[in-house]
């Protein structure tokens, strides 16, 4: 049995988020510019390499895999990868295989994902207004995503909706979105907009809607109780007493959650990022490709990378400027 991955701050790394493509069928304004340039295909890990990479992490004690992107379900033959991971669920080494998706392809894939052992899915959806949805995603169409949500639930997948909180955009929809999730027995998490990627013409400070304000908005409509539950990540939870709903708040900017961080991120090109808000990274593709049959060099490279995991990040909106801003796109590191 291999020694588990423990970082310099004594945090056990048990959660790997994997971006399987930087491509997407949407162009959400806070995530990508309309004319994004994508990586040449040869830069990407092949599906076999992704399998080997993830399997090595599982061998080193990773128990949860979240597949993301870009849009993970637009990667060609992605079900081959999911089906490959099923063996780690069956062996008990992997406790959870899940994904974050924009929902556009779920109508097609929900049943297959369930069959592969996926039980929960996060679907990103910021508005239930068809025109606003088209505006924020630029290329997305709401009815297609709603059919995806239906298909996921019908397949037996537990759905959590992730909504980016955007001032002046979905503020007024808070009760509608909340009620819609309650009716369908779906969890809901609000995410603060983060200063990722090329800001271009988008005014991130103007869009920034503090989740403290979102929570206060809930208190106008419901009795809100704080829950102690943490997942090692940036989410905090409250319960709405009237509906029994659990609402999450992902506040990477206004709270320090780093002390319990259990996760690292793998990009679609095989770079490992140790913190969403820092540049610390290492290349795992070279050691992977250097010895196609021996995982030793890859394991050494993973351990060396984990030793670089920083204590925390420096995002800060509090001084009305974007301190700690990252040049990277979320679609590169995986949200
Ligand atoms: N395409 C998939 C999706 O949209 O769910 C997975 C990848 S996407 C990069 C993952 C998450 O990151 C989505 O929930 C998206 O809303 C969020 N995201 C993207 N850019 C963001 C930003 N600048 N600030 C906060 N969240 C962001
Ligand atoms: Fe695509 Fe997800 Fe980024 Fe939207 S947030 S552009 S769906 S990767």
From TrEMBL:
Record: residues binding S-adenosyl-L-methionine: 30, 70, 124, 194
Broad enzyme group: lyase
CDD domains: Radical_SAM (cd01335), Twitch_MoaA (cd21117)
Species: Sulfitobacter noctilucicola
Protein name as it appears in the record: GTP 3',8-cyclase
Residues that hold [4Fe-4S] cluster 1 according to the record: 24, 28, 31
One Pfam family in the UniProt entry: Radical_SAM
Biased composition range(s): Basic and acidic residues: 313-322
GO molecular function annotation: 4 iron, 4 sulfur cluster binding; cyclic pyranopterin monophosphate synthase activity; GTP 3',8'-cyclase activity; GTP binding; metal ion binding; S-adenosyl-L-methionine binding
PANTHER family reported in the protein's UniProt record: MOLYBDENUM COFACTOR BIOSYNTHESIS PROTEIN 1, MOLYBDOPTERIN COFACTOR SYNTHESIS PROTEIN A
Gene designation: moaA
Keywords attached to this entry: 4Fe-4S, GTP-binding, Iron, Iron-sulfur, Lyase, Metal-binding, Molybdenum cofactor biosynthesis, Nucleotide-binding, S-adenosyl-L-methionine
Similarity-based family: Belongs to the radical SAM superfamily. MoaA family.
Pathway(s) this gene product operates in, as recorded in its UniProt entry: Cofactor biosynthesis; molybdopterin biosynthesis
